[in-house]
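Design request, tokens follow.
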């Protein structure tokens, strides 16, 4: 099978995701990461459409890209305007990108009802626009918008739109499932037919409105397309674009396709870094790169997995830069506990059964250790008598005051004792009772353990465990804490949300102190 080119449109199509807004620095950062990752083309945006994209192309044009060809996006000329007078085409011609990708209509319905021009007029727009950019020194791709809808409505006209782009000098013809409504067999049939009528290589651009973008893209490649367009994490307008994080390993590992210099061992890191930049955490259940992609919970599964990972993993996690995770739960057997102890660097001993029974008992009361490794590690060390108790909360109070009928003020007072019985009593305000309690506890402990001044809460989740019990229901609290270098998660359960929060909070600070002690011993 021919080498397949990888075209990333995260910076343009991905930017149309609801809630996503790239700064120029964001776009430059992602461009640099995609270049390092090894994609062939990066579509940077639409020159002339806004000052941010103009600045991006000006700065990106000075970058020393190693593997990636910067590509500018735009449209065919406006009807009634000559190519050399069209502002959109002028901006494309003037931008520093070597490649331009312009879209045009290939569905007769879109031409007559959206553009409201003649069918032949549209073909002239396509051919003129491509030729103008070629004459301006650009290499050109043509995105045939709504191609598959157009093909099945009026095959001859859809093919005529491609022929117009070919006459103009397009080096790639990209077939777009713009509405994301086609099935893989429909995509494959159309691609096979198009290949009979053109010598220009074909690309595929799918949207995910039917949850078929990955399948349709793979079908198009199998039928003969040699370029795939998509976005990191599948972000994009409506239901998103074809997800390169799924498509690329499927092409390489399942189809044996040559995808060039792309380093799939950095795929998970790319997914997470783009997720951070757009402030949208990647879906944990995403294949290959999601946090759950190689997470194992059932005891029998883990037991088999330890004998041979192929029993429950279709590829090695390391092949895409991910890691295997063993989840501790009431479904865990001794194999799960043993593997989890090994994962956390804890001693493997003959107390696995005791740990398993304790986990099952605590989960019956509402605890969940799947995402709370810090609490699990503390539990094991307490059971084994390996954890020195550094402090104790001997009492606390929470005060709530309504201020002028506008908002509630929270204040917490707390008493703590260190291991030698020294007491510290203090109080702190907060924007809520849990925040006030967190501030007061760390303020009190800082007298004994100054290191805790570096520790802060980064995430807080509450789940009601029995909704039918209404306000008397037990709750589970998960807390994410960091010291600036690493982070950890703890869990607490109680019929009182403050009590559950305090349990998780105490675990988080005990874990921080334990971690500090371990680091100190290593340095010594």
């Amino acid at each position: 099978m021919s080498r397949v080119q990888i075209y990333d449109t995260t910076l343009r199509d991905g930017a149309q995701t609801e809630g996503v807004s790239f700064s120029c620095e964001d776009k430059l950062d992602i461009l640099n990461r995609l270049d390092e990752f090894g994609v062939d083309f990066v579509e940077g945006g639409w020159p002339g459409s806004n000052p941010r994209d103009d600045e991006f192309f000006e700065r990106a044009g000075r970058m020393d890209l190693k593997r990636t060809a910067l590509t500018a996006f735009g449209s065919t000329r406006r009807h009634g305007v000559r190519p050399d007078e069209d502002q959109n085409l002028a901006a494309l011609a003037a931008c520093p990108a070597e490649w331009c990708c312009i879209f045009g209509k290939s569905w007769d319905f879109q031409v007559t009802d959206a553009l409201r021009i003649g069918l032949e007029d549209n073909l002239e727009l396509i051919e003129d626009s491509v030729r103008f950019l070629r004459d301006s020194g650009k290499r050109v791709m043509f995105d045939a918008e709504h191609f598959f809808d157009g093909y099945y409505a009026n095959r001859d006209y859809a093919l005529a739109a491609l022929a117009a782009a070919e006459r103009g000098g397009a080096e790639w013809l990209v077939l777009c499932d713009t509405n994301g409504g086609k099935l893989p067999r429909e995509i494959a049939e159309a691609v096979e037919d198009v290949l009979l009528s053109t010598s220009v290589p074909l690309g595929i651009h799918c949207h995910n409105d039917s949850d078929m973008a990955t399948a349709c893209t793979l079908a198009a490649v199998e039928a003969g397309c040699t370029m795939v367009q998509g976005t990191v994490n599948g972000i994009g307008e409506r239901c998103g674009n074809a997800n390169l994080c799924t498509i690329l390993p499927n092409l390489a590992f399942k189809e044996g396709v040559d995808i060039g210099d792309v380093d799939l061992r950095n795929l998970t890191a790319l997914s997470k870094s783009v997720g951070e930049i757009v402030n949208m955490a990647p879906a944990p259940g995403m294949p290959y790169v999601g946090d759950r992609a190689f997470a194992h919970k059932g005891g029998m599964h883990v037991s088999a997995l330890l004998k041979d990972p192929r029993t429950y993993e279709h590829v090695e996690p390391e092949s895409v830069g991910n890691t295997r995770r063993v989840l501790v739960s009431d479904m865990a057997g001794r194999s799960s506990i043993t593997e989890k102890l090994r994962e956390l660097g804890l001693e493997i001993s003959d107390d696995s059964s005791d740990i398993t029974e304790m986990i099952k008992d605590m989960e019956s009361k509402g605890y969940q250790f799947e995402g709370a490794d810090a609490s699990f590690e503390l539990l094991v060390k307490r059971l084994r008598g390996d954890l020195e108790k550094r402090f104790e909360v001997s009492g606390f109070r929470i005060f709530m005051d309504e201020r002028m009928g506008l908002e509630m003020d929270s204040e917490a007072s707390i008493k703590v004792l260190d291991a030698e019985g020294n007491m510290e009593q203090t109080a702190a305000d907060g924007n809520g009772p849990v925040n006030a309690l967190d501030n007061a506890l760390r303020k009190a402990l800082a007298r004994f353990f100054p290191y805790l001044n570096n520790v802060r809460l980064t995430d807080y989740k509450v789940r009601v465990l029995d909704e039918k019990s209404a306000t008397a229901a037990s709750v589970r609290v998960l807390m994410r804490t960091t010291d600036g270098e690493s982070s950890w998660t703890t869990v607490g359960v109680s019929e009182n949300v403050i009590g559950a929060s305090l349990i998780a909070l105490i675990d988080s600070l005990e874990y921080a102190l334990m971690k500090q002690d371990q680091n100190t011993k290593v340095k010594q």
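Comment from the thread starter after seeing the answer: thanks! Residues 391-523 form a domain with the Double Stranded RNA Binding Domain fold (CATH 3.30.160.270).
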